[in-house]
Amino acid sequence: MNTQALIDIANALVADGKGLLAMDESSSTCRKRFVEQGIEDTEEMRRAYRELLITTPRLSDSVSGLILFDETIHQAKKDGTPFVEVIVKAGMIPGIKVDLGAKPLAGHPGETVTEGLDGLRARLQDYHRLGARFAKWRGVINIGDGIPSTASIAVNAHALARYAALCQDVGLVPIVEPEVLMDGAHSLARCSEVTEKVLHAVFAELNIQGVLLEGMLLKPNMVTSGADSAEQADVHAVAAATLDTLLRCVPAAVPGIAFLSGGQSPALASAHLNDMHQGRVLPWALTFSYGRALQQPALNAWNGEAANVAAAQKELEQRAALNRAAVQGRYTAGMEPK
Description:
Elements: H1 3-13, E1 19-22, H2 27-37, H3 43-54, E2 63-68, H4 70-73, H5 83-89, E3 93-97, E4 102-104, E5 112-114, H6 120-130, E6 134-141, H7 150-170, E7 173-180, H8 188-208, E8 217-218, H9 235-249, E9 256-259, H10 266-275, E10 285-290, H11 292-302, H12 309-327
Parallel strand pairs: 1-2, 1-10, 2-3, 3-6, 6-7, 7-8, 9-10
Antiparallel strand pairs: 4-5
Helix pairs in contact: 6-7, 7-8, 8-9, 9-10, 10-12, 11-12
């Protein structure tokens, strides 16, 4: 393990107010989004869409790294140039999603555990050879009646820590993603309580597994009201609750925290991030690692038509720039496109 290389990459991913574009949707998730738009789902259409994202002009002004899916990291532009080569040439860092998805947790109805540890070392080595320099693994925690259980939190925290240790062993910076889902009618306070329990468990396991905190990033949920809650916390309350929770749980040695959007609208994800950058002194960089909240405007504009590529890229460039402005604490709703 090259400790300094891991530290350098982790810091580069959260430098200068830039964030990550999460374009690591599985083929099935991509298919679902295409169907919603009435776009034909074929490997070539998925490749064309990913080329659109990766080749967006000036994307590197706001984005430091891109999280790819297994299919994507093996793909290339129409002219044959590998996507990884395009990303590096544009001044960004390629990353890769390596978990195999959340599966039902035996004995615990309504809860899941993320699989993919078997054979992971060999897969990580292959991805490193292909040019990936960081990886991502997502653990999923549900809030509901009597859940999450201690077992669910423990097993997902352990898997995240095992994954992170393996990543660092082969030279990849691990992005550790324990996501407490927005699904449900829970309150802001309940989300804060669960998120705190999850983060404490995750960092305890990372310590047990000997993970270098300076060479990793955290990708957590924001602390929000449940999507079905009758009382939705306002932007300031979400930002304050999120920061309070993170400050209680995340060691200062971690160089950066890159939030997932978790189903928030693009504008709301930007507003929450912006409000967290209004004068509070924080021990780590705080940025974005958004998927749908970055991509959706571009997908809407493209709609599967080659003639719409430039318009779609403009949407992505603009959305990324708005999130960088949020990281710098200067985003306003008036900056949103009409």
